[in-house]
Design goal:
The chain has five domains: 1-176, HPT domain (Four Helix Bundle (Hemerythrin (Met), subunit A), Up-down Bundle), CATH 1.20.120; 214-346; 394-527, Histidine kinase-like ATPase, C-terminal domain (Heat Shock Protein 90, 2-Layer Sandwich); 532-676, Roll (SH3 type barrels), CATH 2.30.30; 683-799, 3-Layer(aba) Sandwich (Rossmann fold). The strands form five sheets. It has a five-stranded mixed β-sheet with strand order 2-4-5-7-6, with helices on one face. A five-stranded mixed β-sheet has the order 15-8-9-17-16. Strands 10-13-14-12-11 form a five-stranded mixed β-sheet. The protein is of the alpha/beta class and 807 residues long. Helices cover 47% and strands 17% of the residues. A hairpin with a 2-residue loop joins strand 11 and strand 12 (575-581).
């Protein structure tokens, strides 16, 4: 009976724990040992033990294969030699005894027997515990009982029943009880030894370099800073290119004005000649005589200066093109550098597998259950930081699966299940996310016990009607546990809430699927890397936010009437997305999308959650460098991090799903306080072909807390108003392509733009020009140069605003 075998298995585990640990507070006595040599041995031994764990898994699947035995023998030989060279004789003696058994089996002088593989697992777990303690400079004791057991098996002698491990192949005792709370691996995650048996005692010819993880993180951070500065240079160069375009327009306007001035001065020369009735030589034209006034000489000089400006503009254009080419080349090199560093940070998930196998073996041994760990897609890669953060949560989930999820062998037989339970870990990649599934084929979640404990803690009302998914989410509440007795393995009440918190801090999501009698599966969606990601930028009012593209299903639009309905939804890809207001979710007013016929929607998917969030504007997507925001800000739900834009501004990265879930948990009749206070900043568009006028007027308006947009002529203004309609327009008359009169006429004929007040500001102050403007429908007419107080007063009056005290 498996239950009968459990007691000696537990006894063996406790004996192993005592032998491996010794006094837990006693320090390791280095004596005459070389500390540096000890550290080198600990690092190498950790790699070898991880490699051996994989060979043990192969041996368990195919016990008759010879290659795993040979590989294990080589690993043990290397560990034994290294331990003796470093002076750690207790490890060397145990390794020698285990190697002797394997040598006898390989040379057909002995056999493992039905309990030989669990015995080997006990030995390797003991070695791991001892080496971990040595790395932490804690004392170890010789493993005399276990050594005798290996020697007896190597000589073909039977072992005593009290020391015998569990007969079942997968109910082996695991690492010592001292490893209930596993310590970090002695070697960094991801540093593995070659998997080809022919390359082990002979090392691969390719050299490898080990660097500190914090140094690599710094290099990645520096590469991110370079990317940020590159973006700022690109933005500034774009602004310079725009300024060059303005300069070209100004030069064209100047040349046209000089041409008209030349015509005027030439006409003056001819007119003066005719007035004076000079009788000159008929062979000379009046223009060829030396009759230039100072005005004509200045006009010629201005023409030469204009030609020089055009030449300088051409030179600047050439330099700008060269800078753009250099920046493009630098961008490619910078991207390659960043991607190379990111690949350096990526490590395969199977680097963590040996540690997880030990956890399962330990939990199985302590509970007397038969457990098999199955892996699918463990070759998938994750960011080193993600993997390190998820190590402890994964260990806890595996312990929970064995302790709470799987039934005892007797219970499984009664349920017509195999006595051996299965815990499965699947790893796959979806877009920029890594999906981890941790499941078991056990009894499933005890929802009755979860509800009972939830009512006892005041989390659920007795008369509340909850869906199974909502009930399952209660296990993520802090300190929530359905276990009445606290054991060393599980049930301390500090479990799944920590797992959920760690996943949220990484910007991931956690979902549960459970069926009574069939098992439970936890699905974790994590970012593949924490340093760089693709994000969609959206705008609410004057504030921009970034949303990781991994959670974005698509974009859409919804009519304003439909958006205003309660429980509005948007259909996309055969699924219904409930409509939410992002402004209300973040407490930043409400989305209005002024000037647009429909509301832009960002479609969010996270597990079972489907949400369509309305925004003022979807700006676009781009790659961003993720920056941490500190524990105070990171603790706020919905904040994933922050990024720095090309202009130096900081943009918050949102995780929308927690915001939607928090809103869904609020009572229907409760509206967030921030959503009831809406502060609209009026948008004023300045349309003038003069760069100086646009800048000066824009600064005046910004000082009075207005939002400012600008356009260089009428056509440019119409293009900009296609996206957003301003609240008021300041308009010049004389402009290229489309002048002020033509633009005002077009606006008053357009129902969408008809209500925009227009203040015309021009140097044409004659009554004729003024009257034509009023006939078109212009509300105010000011002359240049204008008085700032007069301009601001007219703006406030037209917008029906109360001026501030200092206006």
């Amino acid at each position: 009976m498996a239950g009968d075998a459990a007691e000696p298995a537990v006894a063996a585990i406790l004996a192993d724990a005592l032998a491996a640990s010794g006094d837990p507070d006693e320090a390791f006595d280095l004596g005459d040992l070389d500390p540096e040599l000890v550290d080198i041995f600990v690092e190498e031994a950790g790699d070898l033990l991880d490699h051996s764990d994989g060979l043990l898994a192969q041996l368990r699947e195919n016990p008759t294969e010879r290659e795993p035995l040979v590989g294990l023998q080589r690993d043990l030989h290397t560990i034994k030699g290294g331990a003796r060279m470093a002076g750690i004789m207790a490890v060397g003696e145990l390794g020698h005894a285990m190697e002797s058994l394997l040598e006898a089996v390989v040379e057909l002088r002995g056999e493992l027997g039905h309990d030989g593989i669990p015995l080997l697992e006990r030995g390797f777990d003991r070695l791991h515990a001892m080496i971990t303690r040595v790395g932490a400079r804690r004392a170890i004791d010789p493993s005399e009982a276990l050594i005798e057991e290996f020697n007896a098996r190597a000589l073909g002698k039977p072992t005593s029943p009290a020391d015998a491990p569990v007969p079942a192949a997968t109910s082996s005792p695991a690492s010592p009880a001292v490893e209930t709370e596993l310590k970090p691996l002695s070697a960094p995650i991801g540093d593995t030894v070659p998997t080809d048996d022919d390359d082990i005692s002979v090392r691969a010819p390719q050299e490898q370099v080990r660097i500190r993880a914090d140094l690599l993180d710094q290099l990645v951070n520096y590469a991110g800073e370079v990317a940020i500065y590159r973006a700022r240079l690109e933005q500034q160069l774009g602004a310079f290119r725009s300024a060059m375009g303005e300069m070209e327009q100004t030069n064209m306007r100047l040349r046209d004005q000089l041409r008209r001035l030349d015509i005027e001065t030439e006409a003056q020369i001819i007119a003066r000649y005719q007035r004076e009735h000079e009788t000159a030589d008929a062979t000379f034209d009046p223009l060829e005589l030396d009759r230039f006034s100072t005005l004509q000489q200045l006009s010629r000089a201005l023409g030469e200066s204009a030609a020089d400006m055009s030449s300088l503009q051409g030179t600047l254009d050439d330099l700008t093109r060269q800078y753009e080419t250099l920046l493009l080349q630098q961008s490619r090199v910078s991207s390659d550098l960043q991607q190379g560093l990111m690949r350096t940070r990526m490590v395969p998930f199977d680097a963590l597998v040996p540690r997880l196998r030990r956890v399962v073996r330990q939990a199985a041994g302590e509970t007397g259950k038969q457990v098999q760990l199955k892996l699918d897609g463990a070759q998938g890669e994750l960011d080193r930081s993600v993997l390190e953060h998820m190590t402890a949560p994964l260990e806890h989930m595996l312990r929970n699966a064995v302790a709470h999820g799987l039934e005892t062998p007797e219970q499984r037989r009664g349920a017509k299940k195999p006595e051996e339970g299965v815990v499965r870990i699947a790893v796959r990649r979806e877009g920029s996310e890594v999906v981890l599934e941790v499941g078991d084929d056990g009894r499933g979640l005890d929802r009755a016990a979860i509800r009972r404990r939830g009512e006892e803690r005041g989390l659920v009302r007795a008369d509340a009607v909850l869906a199974n998914s909502d009930l399952d989410m209660l296990i993520f509440e802090p300190g929530f546990s359905t276990v009445d007795e606290v054991s060393r393995l599980a049930g301390r009440g500090v479990g799944m809430d920590v797992v959920a918190s760690e996943v949220r801090q990484l910007g991931g999501t956690l979902d549960i699927a459970s069926r009574p009698g069939e098992g439970t599966t936890f699905t974790l969606r994590l970012p593949q890397t924490l340093a760089v990601t693709q994000a969609v930028f959206v705008r609410i009012g004057e504030t921009s936010f970034a949303v990781p593209i991994a959670s974005v299903r698509g974009v859409g639009r919804i009519g304003r009437d439909e958006f205003g309905k309660a429980d509005a939804s948007y259909s996309y890809g055969g699924e219904e997305y409930l409509v939410h207001d992002l402004g209300g979710l973040v407490g930043h007013g409400v989305a209005k999308a002024e000037g647009q016929l429909q509301m832009p929607l960002l479609l969010i998917r996270s597990g079972d959650l489907r949400a369509a969030v309305a925004v003022d504007q979807i700006v676009g997507s781009r790659e961003i460098v993720v920056k941490p925001v500190g524990p105070q800000v990171a603790s706020i739900p919905g904040i994933f991090g922050a990024t720095i834009m090309g202009d130096g501004s900081v943009v918050v990265i949102l995780d929308v799903a927690p915001l939607v879930r928090r809103r869904a948990a609020q009572p229907r009749d409760v509206e967030p306080a921030a959503a009831t206070v809406v502060h609209h900043v009026p948008l004023v568009m300045v349309v003038d072909d003069s760069v100086t006028m646009r800048k000066v007027t824009g600064r005046v308006l910004e000082r009075h807390n207005f939002e400012v947009a600008s356009a260089r002529d009428g056509i440019d203004a119409l293009e900009r108003m296609a996206d957003r309609v301003p609240d008021l327009m300041l308009l010049d008359i004389e402009m290229p392509r489309m002048d002020g009169y033509e633009l005002a006429t077009a606006m008053k004929a357009d129902p969408r733009l008809r209500s925009v007040p227009i203040v015309m500001i021009t140097s044409r102050t004659g009554e004729k020009h003024r009257q034509r403007a009023f006939e078109i429908g212009v509300e105010r007419y000011l002359g240049k140069p204008y008085q700032e107080n007069e301009l601001v007063r007219n703006v406030y009056e037209l917008l029906k605003l109360q001026p501030r005290g200092d206006d």
